[in-house]
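seq as requested:
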Amino acid sequence: VQLLLGLATIPLSAGHLDGHEMVKFMNWAQAIVTLQPDAAHYVLDVHPIFKAHLMLGMTIFLVFPFTRLVHVW
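struct tokens:
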């Protein structure tokens, strides 16, 4: 599902070739890594497919330690 959501963002990204949307995601990722509580305001106005992709990705990171996939490490 995560892969399909990521692929679904390609046509939307093609409409934003100036990179403005990607700067929003860069700022969001930086805010997440630095544990800033207001990280969500960077992506409030992006397309819902991007939001779903981000939410599912963070959910995968959250549940990963509690799955058998952790045995890869």
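The first helix runs from residue 2 to 14.
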